[in-house]
Amino acid sequence: MTSESRVRTRFAPSPTGHLHVGGARSALFCWAFARRYQGKFLLRIEDTDQKRSSVDASQGFLEDLSWLGIDWDEGPKWKSCGGGDTGPYEQSQRLDIYDRYMQQLLNSGAAYRAFETPDELDAARRQARAEKRAYKYNRASLSLDEATIKSYLDQGRPYVIRFRIPDDQPVVVQDAVLGEVRVEAGELEDFVIRKADGFPTYHFAVVVDDELMGVTHVIRGQEHLANTPKHALLQDALGFTRPVWAHVSLIFNPDGSKMSKRDKDKALRSEVRARGLTAPPDDSDIDTASFEHWLADKHAQLDTDTATRLAQALGVTLPEINVDDFRRAGYLPEVLLNYLALLGWSPGGDLEQFDRAFLADHFDLDRIVKSPAKFDRAKLLAFNLDAIQDMEAVHFVDCLREFCKVYEPSFLDMMTPEQFDCFALSNKERCKTLRDPVDSGRFFILDDLAIEWPDSKPIRKALCKGSPSGFDRLEAVRETLEALQNWNADSLETCLTEWAASHCEEQIGKIAQPLRVAVSGGPVSPPIFDTLAILGRESTLARLDRCIASRSALEGAAT
RNA sequence: GACCCCAUCGUCUAGUCAGGUCAGGACGUCAGGUUUUCAUCCUGAAAACAGGGGUUCGAAUCCCCUUGGGGUCGCCA
User: Judging by beta carbons within 10 Å of its beta carbon (0-12, 13-18, 19+), is residue A374 exposed, middle or buried?
Assistant: First the structure.
């Protein structure tokens, strides 16, 4: 491959909301393809919608991308990524560039000014719909004479610029995954390339930027397939070279609906409607005006924090759809990356689990799957488990510590570093996510006085059933524990195994489970010796005593 | 509705481009087993070429139709 034909790919998100998994997969494919051919991967922020763009959101994208390990060679600067000399990489900074090319099209007659108002167009669309006709812009402004146009301009009438679709010629585009895609003449309408506010539309900006940034391969979601003929025509009119397109199929929810970044808002809105709420719940901390606006506009999105608060107030579980959601849920970045790659691409054969380096060596366009894929959380979870089990123990401890630092700082505050290490290690073999240990190990950081033994089947089974019962054994073992010399997992194991030999017919479970319930308030914990070691002698005995003291209440409830 | 895209176990997929192995793997499911709880772990099983027509000695594979699914139809990207 010559240096001129060096691969250059780009990921071009609009900075609205967080990076969702579909976008992440597109970015990953672009990245992998560039790496595979020693090319460049660029990042460009498509912020030509003044109403929706926000600086914060694009920061979120960068963070999400870099968490996944997708680094970009050119684009916005962020840590060690970004830079490059085909920028600026924010479209809002490139307005003068677009205007130049816009003028070129205007001069050649390939584009023209159109003065219809949004309301007029809206009415025309509705009418077409009512008449069961496909709507297409009627080119009314194309036949305006120059004097009229000049007078409109003098009056300061707002206008857009439309691209004039060449007549009578079918558009054929080659797609690296789909093959030839053909659209007959007359199917396309004269689409808008510059909005009334002077900003280019997506179609125009994307074409100009891809050319100027030397993009050779455009890998993107199939939702863009219908736009591609428009882009091809624009490129032809501008004298640009067409890139290689590769349209990747979409990712769906298990129920078959499109996995959309708006799913959270959808879930929230439908709950709000189901309850007939017209004002935000008291504890959601949302002001009424923005709540009403959000409720009325199905395109509106709540930011993550607000959505989370509202979900809590409503008792709704939000679907995981953004990269950040999976991070919060305790998935490992390399696992998400692996799974995402597998959703729509495969290396062939039976290989499924691989890392970033493998992708960078082996990824190619010809193995991208054409059909849409459903996102299977169970499989992701299984991959995450495999990865955690394969990890070096010390690395896992580091990962869990990092996770807690961000999402569960109380675990670090309430435990000594030694306790935390032991806590992490005792969970490594049994957790599927980084969140599992903190969810199931909440009791570790609770005050001893906060542990309760609610009346439930597993608790009664462990404490009340049998003769001797769990309570009987707890009372019997207390003294032995109190007298134990060195309080650590090994000595606890020796001690309790010996004790079980003489008191439980060598069945360690007979004492393990009552102890587990006594110190945790529930039937689940890490291995019992680790659990007691982490808790320490003082907490263990305090919880034991309180549990024993609750005996009559629980036995009373059981009858 | 119009246009475009897609179609192998429940799910992700290998096999398709160069027709010829009991259609392979993984996740999930089910049945056993190991285990101090949960989670692991081990063994085994059920499970698919959407339907119909061609072409061919032979079709998951090539062609056509039907059906089903999806995308797009914005001064969003």
Answer: middle
| The domain made up of A94-248 is a member of CATH 3.30.365.10 | no
Residue A450 exposed, middle or buried by CB count within 10 Å (0-12, 13-18, 19+) = exposed
Return all residues near A496 (Cβ < 8 A) that are at least 6 apart: A477, A508, A511, A512, A515, A528, A529
From the options 3.30.2290.10, 1.20.1250.20, 1.10.10.350, 3.90.550.10, give the CATH code of A446-558. Answer: 1.10.10.350
Kindly tell me the number of DSSP H helices and DSSP E strands found in chain A. 24, 13
Note the CA–C1' distance, A85 to B46, in angstroms: 59
Q: How far apart are CA A418 and CA A422, in angstroms?
A: 6
State the average pLDDT over residues A61-82: 95
Q: How do beta strands A251-252 and A373-374 pair?
A: parallel
Give, in Å, how far the C1' of B45 lies from the CA of A467: 40
Q: How far is CA A87 from the centre of its chain?
A: 27
Give the pair of three-digit tokens for residue A280. 């935000």
Q: Which nucleotide is nearest to A508 (CA to C1')?
A: B36
Q: How far is the CA of A355 from the C1' of B77 (A)?
A: 31
Q: List CB contacts of A509: < 8 A, sequence separation 6 or more.
A: none
CB distance A242 to A65 below 8 Å: no
> Which residue's entry shows tokens 């404490």?
A463
Nearest nt (C1') to A368 (CA)?
B13
Instruction: Specify the nucleotide whose C1' lies closest to residue A429 (CA).
Output: B40
What Å value separates CA A433 and C1' B50? 38
**Residue A348, nucleotide of least CA–C1' distance:** B14
Q: Which one, of A73, A69, A54, A68, lies nearest residue A13 by Cα? A: A54
Nearest to A47 by CA among A89, A17, A97, A92: A92
Q: Which helix (H) or strand (E) holds A55?
A: helix A55-68
Q: How large is the average pLDDT for residues A472-480? A: 92
Sequential DSSP letters for A452-486: -----HHHHHHHTSTTTTHHHHHHHHHHHHHH-SS
Q: Which positions of chain B lie under 7 Å from any protein Cβ?
A: 1-8, 10-15, 17, 24-28, 36-41, 69-77
Q: What whole-number distance in Å separates Cα of residue A100 and Cα of residue A119?
A: 29
Residue nearest to nucleotide B39 (CA to C1'): A430
pLDDT, one tens digit per residue, over A273-317 is 888 888 888 877 888 888 888 888 777 778 777 888 888 888 777
Instruction: Output the distance from A437 CA to B32 C1' rounded to whole Å.
Output: 30
Number of Cα atoms under 13 Å in the Cβ half of residue A14:
14
Spanning CA of A25 to C1' of B49, the rounded length in angstroms is 28
Question: Max CA-CA distance within chain A?
Answer: 107
Measured CA to C1', the nucleotide nearest A256 is B69
Q: Which of A252-266, A459-473, A544-558 has the lowest mean pLDDT?
A: A252-266
